[in-house]
Amino acid sequence: MTVLTAPPGSARVPAAPRLTRWLLRLHRPALVVWTVLVLLCSALLVWLAGPLTDAAAEGWRQYNACAMSARCSYDQDSILHYKDAYTYLTVAAGGLPFLVAAWAGGALTGRELESGTAQLAWAQNVTTTRWLTLRLAVPAAVVTVGASLLFLLHRRAWTAGHGRIDTAKSWYDLWTFETNGLLTVALALAGLAAGVLAGVVVRRALPALTLGLGLTAGVWVLARLLMPHLWPAVTQVTTPGQGYGQHSGIQVGQGLVTASGGHIPQPECYAALPDGCGQAFEKLGAVGYYTEYHPLSHYWPLQLTTSALVLAVAGLFVAAAFWLLRRRTATPHRRTATPRAAERATA
């Protein structure tokens, strides 16, 4: 195990009370880039929620008014501009966790441990706990403010077009669901925690950046897979003649209802056969169909439960980073304690 020590002959770093100011100065370029990015996306989201949505809605009103005519004149450019702007801004907001993870792993921890900046701070009576706490708390505050602003403005833009633009994304679209709520903030904080853990683990900038991105991608996939199952779904039951019922929301599962009221998966069958799927269903004792889904009223329960899951994983990353850093930095003290104890015993 490699011992983390301060490089000899290094310049003095600020004392602990001024470490926050020093941290901000050290990572000023990243802070400037983050601020510019948030302000730019915010301005574009305000534009999307206002003039661009109004123009696209008017374009769709014109199109629907003359849809049955042989010739139709409508503002197609406004509709396409709205679609492109919404897509790009949604992807930008959804990509924040990966941007934060790359910076936290590559620059915030990985580069400082690789260059010796962190070890220099520890040699100036800055404890490893305080050092790591500041590298989590200060960026977490900045990330929370920026991500919260973007999700609020994105939700405002989506709400402005909902019901007015025919091609507007539904609330359960995966990217829209994520960027319209607190999950955006939770994933960004998870990206920060993943990057910090990656930096502490590998202590090199580029490998830490890669590992941080990988951990963040894992949390992102986990959240998407588990989200539909974190809140009880609504069950819709229909008769065989009705088929599967119509619904609008996040589908969790479908299948057959037996005479006893049980739910079983639908077997594979070919409706093109003369008897269709009737014989297969009769053998199973099916008397209807069921569909489990989440309606619009489940949006915030799903948002809160999924965000809580993501934050719990982020907490595990933080705990692992503190544990690993303490273990590595405590090694020299344990190694030097044994010879001194032996000298006292033989004196």
Structure description:
With 347 residues, the protein is of the alpha+beta class. It has two domains: 257 residues, no CATH class; 45 residues, no CATH class. It contains twelve helices and four strands, in the order αααααααααβββαβαα. It has a four-stranded antiparallel sheet. A hairpin with a 4-residue loop joins strand 2 and strand 3. Helix 2 packs parallel to helix 6 and helix 9 packs antiparallel against helix 11. The longest helix is centred in the N-terminal third of the chain and has 38 residues. The N terminus and C terminus are likely disordered.
Entry summary:
The chain has 347 residues and is an alpha+beta fold. The protein has 12 helices and 4 strands, in the order H-H-H-H-H-H-H-H-H-E-E-E-H-E-H-H.
Could you name the key traits of this structure?
single chain; 347 residues; alpha+beta; 2 domains; 12 helices; 4 strands; disordered N terminus; disordered C terminus
Write the layout of secondary structure elements.
Layout: H1 19-26, H2 28-65, H3 76-94, H4 96-115, H5 117-123, H6 128-161, H7 174-179, H8 183-202, H9 205-226, E1 234-238, E2 250-258, E3 263-264, H10 278-283, E4 286-294, H11 299-329, H12 331-346
Helix pairs in contact: 2-3, 2-6, 3-6, 4-8, 4-9, 6-8, 6-11, 8-9, 8-11, 9-11
Straight-line N-to-C gap: 32 Å
Approximate shape: flat
Report the biggest beta sheet as strand number plus sense, adding barrel if it closes: 4 strands, antiparallel
Radius of gyration: 28 Å
* Helix percentage range: 55-70%
Q: Give the DSSP E fraction (strand runs of 2 or more residues).
A: 5-15%
Enumerate how many helices there are, as a single number.
12
Mean pLDDT level: 84
Reading the helices and strands in chain order gives: HHHHHHHHHEEEHEHH
Number of domains: 2
Structural class based on helices, strands and sheet pairing: alpha+beta
- Low-confidence sequence ranges: 1-17, 332-347
SS elements, strand count:
4
